[in-house]
Amino acid sequence: MQKQGTTELFSSLHKAFMMYLKRFAGKNNTFSAPIKLKIAHTFRVVREIRTIAEHGNNGLIHPDIAKCTALLHDIGRFQQYASFGTYDDRTSINHAALGIVIIDQLNLLSQHTEAQQNLIRTAIIHHNHAIVPENLEPDEHTLAHMLRDADKLDIWKLTINQDMNKPVDSRISPENLERLRTFRKIPYAEVVTKADARMFRISWVFDVHFPQTIRTILSRGYIGQMFSKLPRTKQLQEVQETIENLLQYRLKEQSLQSNNRPFQSALGSGLSD
Prior knowledge:
Layout: H1 6-21, H2 33-54, H3 63-72, H4 75-84, H5 95-105, H6 114-126, H7 138-163, H8 174-181, H9 194-202, H10 211-219, H11 222-227, H12 234-255
């Protein structure tokens, strides 16, 4: 039995989260630009995950539990930046793991049931992993993918805006182009050029799991905007069209199903690495 209603849970957690953020404020209670960036990102992910949760997740996850998860998903980022001056996990610390430590130290989930606490922690610890383990419980698997989808949606928006006035980079690794052409995720370790980084983020579409995420990607024109910063070769134009057709196909496929099961990896598990 819940200790309190889900709406009250989010409201209480929101207050605690805002109190925690105060320790990172500078003079006149203002935040530096990098901290502001992560605060804004956090609340946009809260909005994205609420929409995903409200448009079908088979009833496994209440929207307010999803919102609580999104609110805390990057809580480790603030101490990470304060301690290391970077958001790069590779040169500092795993921000998801640090976030779990902070959540537990501050007892931020004390108003949640034990089951809810474990569910939220599991989603957060896996939100920045290359893949989500298949052996999770159905609700854990669902929430983890909801968070990852919501996180991707906002990161795409941020990177598109940041790229807007930057030049096109034509230095494309043939191996990464082939991965994109065959619907495979590009490993971050294989990113060499700016163009590779753009293709890396495009390849995230092969790891989205909910129809609402697909609808949002298409309605916001994310694919075309991301491809616009790659060379306009015939091959890349064909890849763009194929990916957009794939997303449309996945939506159509889902509409023919009788339930709201999340999407699996693109065109079957064999094409995802």
